[in-house]
Amino acid sequence: MRTKAAATLGNSGEKSAVPFLIGALVDENRHVRRAASAGLSQVWDDEAVAPLCAALSDVDWFVRWNAALALGQIGDQRAIAPLIGTLQDVNRYVRRNAAEALGNIRSKTATGSLIKSLQDRDVDVRWNAADALGKLRDQDATDPLVMALNDPDEFVRERAADALGRIGDARASGALQHALNDKDNDVRTTAEEALEKIKRRNRNQDGSP
What is the pTM for the complete model shown? Predict the structure, then answer.
């Protein structure tokens, strides 16, 4: 009954449901907590930030997964430190959402931790980390993203090339030139686009036509 109530209120998208959903995050029944965390990922209310941060430590991985998702959608800076810690979660799906959430919040505080996640054993965590670093546009990530152009997975290499284009650091030009010979067409295409973005950025900075 409580699970159904949490699911119904969450699906309503109404702000008035937030107090109930916050309370349900600590319910003894994991199914209720799952429904509550899923509901809060649809409501996006600042009042839920602290309870959702606490839910990142829930024993149930699906609650943690939903909490990371919700925090990324809310975009509150208070979630940065807890989400950084969640990049070390034992569950790969939770780590994926934590990396994505940090990219959505767009604080360079997370740069160092996301760089470490470029070495995660899960390919989708590495993809999300590269994508997040592109959103942060922190030049400190240039060298690690250049290294990620050699990732064994073509999707990660493509995302690293895209991130380097968004950052716009000319130091990546040589590696991106090399990526034009990648065996994957999407990597080659994205590397070419990234090089053009870097060239445009440099022209704008030096005032060239």
Answer: 0.91
